[in-house]
Design a protein that fits this description.
This protein has a domain of 293 residues: Metal-dependent hydrolases (TIM Barrel, Alpha-Beta Barrel). Helix content is 31%, strand content 20%. The chain contains twelve helices and 16 strands. Strands 1, 2, 3, 4, 5, 14, 15 and 16 form an eight-stranded mixed beta sheet that branches. Strands 6-7-8-9-10-11-12-13 form an eight-stranded mixed beta sheet. It starts with a helix and ends in a 7-residue tail after the last helix.
Amino acid sequence: MNKNTHQSTENKPMSRTFRIISSTLAISAASAAHAQDLGHKAPPQSTPIAITNVTIHPMTSPTIEHGFILFNEGIIAEVGAGDRVFAANTRVIDAEGLHVYPGMIAPFTQLGLTEINALRQTKDMNEVGSVTPEVRACVAVNPDSTLIPVTRSNGILTFASFPTGGAIPGRVSIMAADGWTWQDMAIEEDAGLAINWPSMRPSNNWWADEPDAKQLERIKERLQEIDEIFQQAISYRDAGQQPRDVRLEAMLGVLPGPDGSDPANPVFISANDIDQINAAVTWATALGLRTVIVGGNDAPLAAELLTLHGIPIIISGTQRFPKRNDSPHDDAYTLPIELTNLGIRWCMASTDRTAHERNLPYNIAKSVAFGLDHEAGMRAITIDTAAILEIDDRIGSLEAHKDATIIITNGSPLEMTTNPVMAFIQGKEINLDNKQSELAEKYREKYRQLGLTRDN
């Protein structure tokens, strides 16, 4: 074999590897490019808008039949009943037979932080390191995510974006579901600190291949990790924030003031088991933190502790199996009813993956089907969620001086047959089209052209 032949043979595997890598990168780039919303963002409201002759569901007061709602410059000016004469420059929308609701709020999501689960390049919700309180979810939110239009097309106009991973993954941000940049979308850049509380007991699941002693050691390490950073932040606060530490400074908002004043923001602690909830609440209360439990499957078992400290729950959906083998079959569906009866504040998140966040209202609809009052169900994804996220002074109900973030529907949002026909975010009229609806119309047109529609 001559030298040239030898070189050619050696280069073949390298060339094949290069081609594989190049193809993979091309596929990744194409996938990322296709996972982009190509629609225009809504311009600011330019003229007063009145929606008339409509059934209004304010959430904080009784339903108004044959009502009207007037908003200008993104703010609700008036909500009332009957006929009304408006200024000449007002755009009047006659919505006879339709309903107006506040835009729904998703309280626990990774919207804008993840796009395609199988593609690492489109996932940006998990920062490197176990303790990263300096991270704000909002700066990583992709305004051009195709999942945001899909979600808002079902009436979900506001969402809380949570970082994930590690013990303290970062700070929660509350976002509007439209905007050119994350700054446009941000309602609250820093709404509180996310904490992932560890399981308090060893796991006996088939995938847990570590002995109990090793698992207990890891649990102890995680608990120490969480407590130590908070103790450091308290010392940093008391020392006058010198020298400056970005991580510790980011935690000051969830700490009580040196004078004992309440923290500005809550901590959102993910915990489901009774021993997790008890440990997390006991720890947080001792430090003077304001706490929201995310998950809370065993919250009824911790009712006395939760009601004593007024701690609310963000329920992690109803579309799941009962927690234990001996639990009632409707355990997940009736959890909201149990919490209501026990006097525990709660709101509803979705158990679905980010791509299916649009299904949020159907999670609460399951509880309504099992006995929860319909109005309570709607409040759980509007004003009650806004109150727990501490943005109820701006959104969540239809009242004067609040943001005009509303949906017009042809029925109850809890019914799968209901469709929003119009939506406004801070007075901006939102395009409810999305990639899925465009593809649906594309293939309807295909079959119309082929003469394969039902009409033929």
